[in-house]
Design goal:
Number of helices: 7
Low-confidence stretches: none
CATH superfamily of the largest domain: G protein-activated inward rectifier potassium channel 1
Mean pLDDT: 85
Helix content: 25-40%
Number of domains: 2
Order of helices and strands: HHHHEHEHEEEEEEEHEEEEEEE
Strand content: 25-35%
CATH architecture of the largest domain: Sandwich
Oligomer: single chain
Largest sheet: 5 strands, mixed
Length: 301
Amino acid sequence: MAKNRWQDRVKSRVVNRYGSFNVLRKGISYSLWRYDPYHALLTISWGTFVALVTVGYFIINAIFALLYLAGGDGIENARSGNFFDAFFFSVQTMASIGYGAMYPKTAYANLLVTIESIIGLLILTMASGIMFARFSLPKARVIFSRIVLITTYNGLPTLMLRIANKRENWILEAQVRLTIVRNEYTKEGSFMRRFYDVPLVRSDSPLFALSWSVMHTIDENSPLYGMTQHKMIEDEMEILVIFTGIDETVSQTIHARHSYVPDEIVWGAQFVDILTRTRDGKRCIDYAKFHDFVSTVNIKP
């Protein structure tokens, strides 16, 4: 029963743990493939994209093969009425291969070759552009800690999580934004899913390369003031973390997001230190301990 309740709370989160959207859309007749195919081609997986291009390539060549066959014996050195000869002649034409064994010998076949060459050029241009756009999309390689801690920092209760850059480069003008999402009811009894921006001890870093402890002081002005774990679960509270910065390698803005639910909040603990020095004095970060923590103080959930 407890496991089912935990699964229900995970399903109710707005953002999945690793950043994908977790809300179903109903009552809107918007088709991504119909109204925004370019965006669809950029967002589908690589496997789906390659499969779609391959299937489309075979279909277009099959259509032209049938058109060549409809014109009779219009291809020199091709077997009359043979679909595969016409298909492979279409492939050679569309790809501008031109082996020379088969070539058009009628006006009808030459017209089809002209049309197919133009279509092949357009398809190649668009496919290459979309392929390049997919490769050039900036991707953040940022690690978020699996859990959030509520601990004591400088004598004050503090919410803490940490992030790190997996790449061996700098992220310039890095910024972190923390938002609390929870259920509330107005005085009129209307249900609302409220968003609260959470002030951080440090919300930006001019140069981010190693790790970053993101902290929020829980004082009288904090939306978490007086909150207990039971209250968090009751309100279906969710912590959204948004990270943005400029990747110095590609000079483009990158972003990452993460989400935490009450079951991923640990009370009265602190993270294990992951920054050390080698024998020759160099700084070292141990990602194997990135998610580790130890119990320290008695903060009641």
